[in-house]
Amino acid sequence: MALRRKGRPAGRRAAVRWWLLSLAGTAAAAALLAVALHVSAFASASAGAPYRLAKQPREAEELRWEQEFAPPQLASPHSRKLDGATDDAAPDNMLWLPAPSRRFVPCVSPSPDYKRPAKPRGYLLVHTNGGLNQMRAGISDMVAVARILNATLIIPELDKKSFWLDKSNFSDVFDEEHFIRSLVNDVKVEKKLPMELVKAPKSVRHFKSWSGVDYYQDEISPLWEHRQVIRAAKSDSRLANNFLPSDIQKLRCRAFFQALRYAPPIEALGNLLVERMKSFGPYIALHLRYEKDMLAFSGCTYGLSQTESDELASIRENTTYWKVKDIDPLEQRSDGHCPLTPKEVGMFLSALGYPSSTPVYIAAGEIYGGESHMVELQSRFPILMSKEKLASAEELRPFSKYASQMAALDYIVSVESDVFIPSYSGNMARAVAGHRRFHGHRKTVIPDRKALVRLFDKVDSGLLNEGDVLSQMITEMHRKRQGSPRKRKGPVSGTKGSDRFRSEEAFYENPLPDCFCQSKDDSS
Asked: What angle do CA 76, 279, 23 make, to 5 degrees?
């Protein structure tokens, strides 16, 4: 009886909600109104409970009113779908289906000849560099380097001096105990140097980029004869993408995809954000790389005011570790080296066939220019969500001052999304794309930016209209860019030296064939 009495207000809330939605004149208006109601319900439900794991069931009365009172537009056998108030907004299943996996499954277990780590020769200190995902790849590489060098790996130090000035320690971002346990058969990992070695002389080295096993065995390993501690001054791209022993490649995958789990508070809130996004129905995670650091670094100013362009140029000029200062923004864009703008992303999603009622999660930091640059995307896709909209200020407070921790929340929501679309092929895009391959080749649409900007320019100049023709062109050019299994791409023909390595597809973006096997079981 008590539960029945509690259910009545919930039922009235559902009835009022449906009545308000029925008054909305368009699917987009209905979606906007539904978002407001939907998110306000989250705010009241989560008061006093900062973390709830996504696998925990929702409160009984919440489930009860959904099952008994919510209309089809707000309820389904597994979730609420906010597809607007008209039938033509119903999602096309083909938009959400992943590309065929062709029975490729992860296989990262070591070979029969792989042995537990021998007695270490010394200690490897690692100073990581870059943002969250650059550090994640670097840490995974350093796990493999520690194995090659037969070293004890000290928990890596995260970058605290880069653009974001994030003071997070390893245990603030990653589950330190899980990391150590997961690698127990691969590398000895300790939290700190022994006290007697803290002030001892160390051999500090910038390991050569894209190096193979021979480099570490021939040039770095002899350093143990003079020092007990080797310090890696940087961690990014210190291992080659290709032509490494199979067991080393599989170890890199175990480190990246399994050992580097996020810290429990991040995992908890990240999973809760996933739960809240999925309550809207199938959703797109859009990595909208339209942030100040990206635009300043790349020199991309299309669609910006002169004041904004000058600000970005000043940032680039004054950031000493960014080597390239003089950049032609028009050439960058025409060559496909710029992130898509929010307006262009909206045109892209529409051309792919996603209706305006599609829930879209914005995985990004602060968008440069704020809402002024988001107007057109918001008008096309009004169910535009973010961690700041899905979570309360109280829930975000422990993470809000730390860029890496906030990025980790976006990472979780992106990996678990029904569709992932990056506006730029940066470190997060590559990391998430690889993780989604590892979890069953989930649908990941990689925009062909070079081809798209040519089409969008034609639209802007009046030579081409939005509609069926543009949609067919864009859909066809992305038919084979949806995350299906394929062998990792090698270097671009004609490139030499470091440019040759840089042009290769990154190992963690697509660890096939090294970390995948083709199952013989047709049910896989």
From this structure: 75
What is the distance between the alpha carbons of residues 520 and 444, in angstroms, rounded to a whole number? 25
**Residue 303 CB partners (closer than 8 Å, separation 6+):** 341, 343, 373
Of 159, 172, 169, 178, nearest to 257 (Cα)?
A: 178
pLDDT digits 0-9 by tens, 400-434: 999 999 999 999 999 999 999 999 998 999 999 99
Which of 180, 185, 173 has the alpha carbon at shortest distance from 136?
A: 173
Give me the count of residues in the chain: 524
Cα separation, 390 vs 274, whole angstroms? 9
> Mapping DSSP to helix (H, G, I), strand (E, B) and coil, where does residue 104 land?
strand
CA atoms within 13 A on the CB side of 74: 26
> Six-digit token pair at 114?
């792989």
Closest among 140, 412, 401 to 262, alpha carbons compared: 412
The answer to whether the Cα torsion of 211, 215, 217, 220 is positive or negative is negative
Left (φ > 0), alpha (ψ -120 to 50) or beta: where does 353 sit? left
What SS3 class is residue 154? strand
Sheet holding 151-154, edge to edge: 189-190, 151-154, 122-126, 229-232, 203-205
Mean pLDDT for back-to-back runs of 10 residues, the chain (524 residues): 39 39 44 53 46 38 34 36 35 84 95 95 96 96 98 96 86 98 98 96 95 97 96 94 97 98 98 97 94 86 89 87 85 92 95 97 87 90 96 96 96 98 94 96 96 96 95 96 95 90 95 94 51
Residue 65 main-chain phi, psi, to 5 deg? -70, -30
> In terms of Cα–Cα distance, which of 130, 132, 124 is closest to 155?
124
Angle at 449 between CA 443 and CA 451, to 5 degrees: 110
Residue 287 β-bridge partners: 422
3-state secondary structure of 385: strand
Alpha helix ranges (H) inside 325-396? 329-334, 342-352, 375-380, 387-390, 393-396
